[in-house]
Amino acid sequence: MLNKLGEQLTQAFLKYMPHAFVFAILLTLVTAVTSYAWLDASPLEIISAWYDGFFDLLGFAMQIVLIIITGFSIALSPIIKKGIDGLACYIKSPTQVYFLAVFIGMLLSLISFGWVVITAVLARELAMRVKNINYPFLIGCVYISMNSWVMGLSSSIPLLLNSEKNYLIESGVLDNTIATSNTLGSSLNIAMIVLFVVGAPLLLLLLKPRKVQQKELKDFIINTTIDDKQSIKEEALSLKLPFKSLSDKLNNSILLQMIIVAMGLTYIIYHFSTKGLDLNFNIMIFIFLIVGLLLHKTPIRYAISMKRSSSNISGILFQYPFYAGIMGIMLYTGLGAKLGEVLASVATAETYPFFAYLTGGIVNFAIPSAGGEFAVVGPSIINAVKEIGVGLPQEEITAMISRASMSVAYGESLSNLLQPFYMLIIMPIMAAGTKLQERDVMGYLVIPFLVFFVLQSVMVVYWPM
After folding, report:
1. Measured in whole angstroms, how far is the alpha carbon of residue 219 from the centre of its chain?
2. What CA–CA distance (Å, rounded) separates 381 from 386?
3. Whole-number average pLDDT of the chain
4. Positive or negative, the Cα torsion across 175, 362, 187, 192?
5. Which of 147, 273, 287, 296 supports an S-S bond with 302, CB 3.0-4.6 Å?
6. Alpha-carbon Rg of the chain, whole angstroms?
7. Taking Cα atoms as reference points, which of 125, 123, 149, 128 lies closest to residue 138?
8. How far apart are the first and last CA of the chain?
């Protein structure tokens, strides 16, 4: 029954869901009209806010691009290829591939948001080796596996709350930092980790589609250059001149590249020895870069791997500014803060976690960035919680703020299953050289969204911190 419903939802998304760029345009118009109708903002004010926000995510967009291409480059190295080939000897069935994609993806995303790239590469490579895999469903498995990042080491909201002199403290919303032991280390968050790491793979197996015909990776491929039969080493050799030259020696110099690798490894060791387990975007990109250089051995081979890795990132480059524009409208017209105030105003001591969770999910459609979203709605939610907790001991108020903040994070993350924004990270890898679009995948995510929405709603309200 669930399988059949999943297929029906997939057909509905195929029929009605437009391209991700059209989705961004529609969200822009909806946000603009809402600002005009609800806040009486003038059209020029809205357009100006849209423009002001348009380039706010350029740095973030470049980070995402580098995460994708440096991670993909590692996967193209000979040693990783051999490792995946070895794994494929033990992974023989589609069921095993689906389970592995979700389970491994959940574990990797707990370490860092950017590691979903590794999951995407692994899943695509296994799909090339194991027959009878419903490939759009497999992409959905990888996308769902991202959900654990908000509970893990790179979760931006709890890390923000634990940062000295953060904007919430500077503005007087908070008096002190909130330790991650109250958020990431809470009983609630540990229970959420177990729910997703264990529950998500099992749920996806229940939803496994029966229809496989015309759904395998080979059925969607229209451009085989991404899986070029010529190895990177062979291409590098083909570029050599027919006579000895200094340029070829430099291009193929292992020593030259290993000097850079040694410098990079030195800094990585220094970073973690002085800053602890600080897994921000920049250090993850740097690690991917240095590991890629190490595995490809020579400058020319690494350059070829990066060329192949960056062949399908156009969606990120031109769509991220449009989502930044939506965020600009929400931020600079006051729409986001207003929405946060309205939802917080109806919250009570019993219901505030649910309304925080709901706020995170709703606002995520317009601001698909946990840190950016919390900057807009966080102050309203925290102030509402402080009002509800007047007269309580400071420890209890801190626990309430921690619960509300994590609830926003959970809601923001889960609603990505209905929002194709972060598909822009996965599709350049898994859909490279194919005719696949987001609409081929999103239908498989509706039932998981509904199941986890119900479970998380109950847990954020009733599970002890």
Report:
1. 27
2. 9
3. 84
4. negative
5. 296
6. 23
7. 123
8. 36
